[in-house]
Amino acid sequence: MPDANVEVLRGTLDLLILKAVSWGPTHGYGVARWIEQATDDVLQIEEGSLYPALHRLQARGWIDAAWGVSENNRRARFYSLTAKGRAQLRVEAATWTRFAYAVFAALEAPPRPA
Amino acid sequence: MRSAPDPRRPPAWRRYLSFWGADIAADVDEELRFHLEMRAAEYAARGLTPDAARSRAEQRFGNVHRAREACSRIDRQQARAETHAQMLLALRQDTVYALRVLRRQWLPALAAVLCMAVGVSATTAMFSVADTLLLRPLPYPNGDRLVAISTTQVGAASSIGVSSYLDYRDWRASQHSFDDMGAIGETNFIMLHGEPRRVSASLVTASFFPTFGIGAELGRVFSDADDRPGAAPVMVVSDAFARQEFGEPSRALGESIIVNGIARTIVGVIPDRWRYPSRGDTWLPIATGGYSGFSNGVENSSSRGNRNLQVFGALHRGVSLDRARGELAAVAARLQREWPGSNAQMTTSLAPMRDQYVGDIRGSLVAVIGATMLVLLIACANVAALQLARASARTREMAVRAAIGASRGRIVRQLLTESVVLSLAGGALGTVLAVWARELIRRAVAPSTPAWMTFDIDGRVLLFAFGVSMLAGVAFGIAPALRLADLRAGTALRNATVGSSRSRLQRAFVVAEVAISIMLVVSASLALESVWRIDRIPLGIDPAGVVSFEVTMQGARYDQPPARARLVDEVEQHLRAMPGVVAAGAADRMPINGCCSQFPMVIQGQPVAQGHEPFVTGTIATPGYFAALHVHLVAGRTFEASDDASAPKVMVINQTFAHKYWPRGDALGHLVNTGAGYAAIVGVVQDVKQASIFGAPDPQFFRPYAQDPWTRAVFAVRARGDLAQVASAARHVVRSIDPTMPIFDVQTLAQVFDEATLTTRSLSRLLVAFAGIALLLAATGLYGLVSFLVERRTRELGLRVALGAEPSRVARMVIVQASALAGAGVAVGIGGAMLAAKWLASTLYGVTPRDPSAYLLAVLILGAASLAASYGPARRASRADPMDALRAE
What we know:
The complex is a heterodimer of chains A (114) and B (889). With 114 residues, chain A is an alpha+beta fold. Chain A has helices at 10-22, 28-38, 47-60, 83-108, and strands at 26-27, 63-69, 75-81. Chain A has a single domain (10-107), classed as Orthogonal Bundle (Arc Repressor Mutant, subunit A). The radius of gyration of chain A is 17 Å and the shape is elongated. In chain B, the strands form 3 sheets. In chain B, strands 14, 15, 16, 17, 18, 19, 20 and 21 form an 8-stranded mixed β-sheet that branches. In chain B, strands 3-4-9-6-8-7 form a 6-stranded mixed β-barrel. The longest helix of chain B has 41 residues, at 64-104. Chain B is globular.
């Protein structure tokens, strides 16, 4: 179990989903597992909001959905990144990184002169 | 073993399932279930029991139900959006294709558009007129509650229309159904503001403006304090008047204008659209009206019978008109008992105010609506026939499309798009034409309408036009579309004749068109007959070559009756001296258009109970009146110069009067009292149409002007030559005698007659136009059908000729076939024509619905039209080359 239970904001969730799917077609469970593994179990996503997020992104046209057969021969819905989604992923990743650096810089900043 | 299945493509049977359309809820369920099972498997691999693993998985997931709802919602929205996008795309494709097709066959398409335009323009124009007259609310704030209250004689068919001030006061005091009541009387005043001018003024009670809901845009309207005898003289003017006199409406406030010798202050300006009457310019309080007939009605209680005011009331919300009727009738009954002298037999009659404008024209309005509907129907039938004709060229195209998999629905939709594109184009053109047609229709329905009735083509009318076009497009497109789409691919491709059922439909259309045409032609000829008869109504006078104009003698100079008599005499003499003038006379009003002054009448020797005296129409006339108007003398004499104020009282009566009371013809010499003492009857004249051209004349008497000089005099000048010059010369004459007296209402009697018959003449013009259009359309339809039939039978006809039939016989066959169609149409339509005729008879004057001549004429016209239409095809048929027929075999 992770030390701190970090809540994942919605915008960040979209970014993570896009990244997860960018490696190739995955189903929803696969996306959840990838996020856990990639963040070393630090980020626990609420699965109840994962699926609506997936559907939303699909409606937006950033990811495509198609029914397929999973590795254990079950019917599952696979998501893959579209060209639009790839561009969106680049943009959001850059924004988020800048945001993170800014917060980090603020946290490390010396106290304001009196 | 087969290759490992591609993880992304489900097996074939799974794909087949989704052919029936995605089931969104089931899909979401399956997706979430998969997740939970995988998670449970994960926990099971770590050592939990299947049940525990399952519940752990669900716990970790969170709210499955909420997730399912959210996903379903998102998916459903997306599915809807996709469907919409697809529909729009299909629509655009269809429209583009339709335009391409229409451009290829542009001639029949153009014909269809024109037909549609005609139909839509007539219908739209008619709707605009009907909308304004019937549907749009009156411009006054309380317009929907306004009621016109008039005095009626018990048992009389129509009301007198005007009421007395004292009656009005009593009604207002005793009623509970109305928010308020107001009274208005119209008159003309001389106004001095620069040049002396006649101004149309209305005398109103203080409650008048509140009753209508009219408020001033500047200043104020009258208060109770203004409407008391002795109050400071004030007036309210219209915006247009203020602009005309003072430039700016705001500059009018506080200004003072001399009206009939009294200086009045303008205290308020009201907006033009709220004027009542709609051409009024000024309003004065009734109590301070000054010298006019009303000052009698205001104070003197013996003048309760002096009826000259229009009364209106605004109903309380929620109170029904019938309740108000009952209430006022009860008040009237009480007044009957209390004032038998003036109110015996008098009761009230109420009608919504809209009826004042619309009541008269209901008949012509319905006639026009019916006629435009018929024209629209014909236009649609014609377009449908054109569509069918075009369809014949496309059977192959349709068959090919069906063969390669286009669904029937898709084909029908695409054909309907064509029809709708056609009809919308026609509708757009029609709306443009409607602007011009509107005037034609308006004049046929309601020639004189109040100023606020503007027949605009506004949003509502445009919407109506659009709706009609769409409806028509679908209506006439659906039959051909269904027919065409139903083709079996096989038969069409083999080029068999598929036309028999289609030609049946075309035949039906043509028969319908002929039927409708005959209805319109019969109506048109009946309307023309009405006009013809109206021109021959005996008027009792000869209006040709007569100019009339009116003067009002007001002010101190004409206070005394002898002064007025002198002026009229002087003007008459000067008029007679003008070059070209044959005769000149004057009276209180001219015939044909002016009703009337009513007088209670008592014949000496035939006593009548007080309060039950009959009323007769009276005209105050100079001796010259009879000569100027060519009134025909039947017995005795007309007036002479010696019948003046010092001479014994005399009167002349009309034939109706004489026959009614002296059926044996001995009217001369009897004494009759019409409110000014007993006068001896010295002459009987032929009836003159006084109140209106239509209807039987009422008993009428004439009183010499010199013996009762009124303040109003209308002069009639009979002259040779240019009447306009005569009119301006007359103006000079009057000005030379009294420069401060303006002259107005200058018109020829022929104009007055035309105005009175305007509705009938306009309606007949409209019906003739419609009948012409209908004939043209029906003839075109017939021509198209007969050509098509001939074409179909070219081979057969060619064979006949080859086998020895004479070309003329072949031609005759074609003509007979065409005539049979036309005849069928006539047979179908004659019943409708008779109905239309019966209905027209109730609206127009002198229409004899059972007169066969109109029907015969219509049949002849249609016969001629059908002959003309079939001439071309018949000739073509007779020229059918037998070689062509043999070669084609």
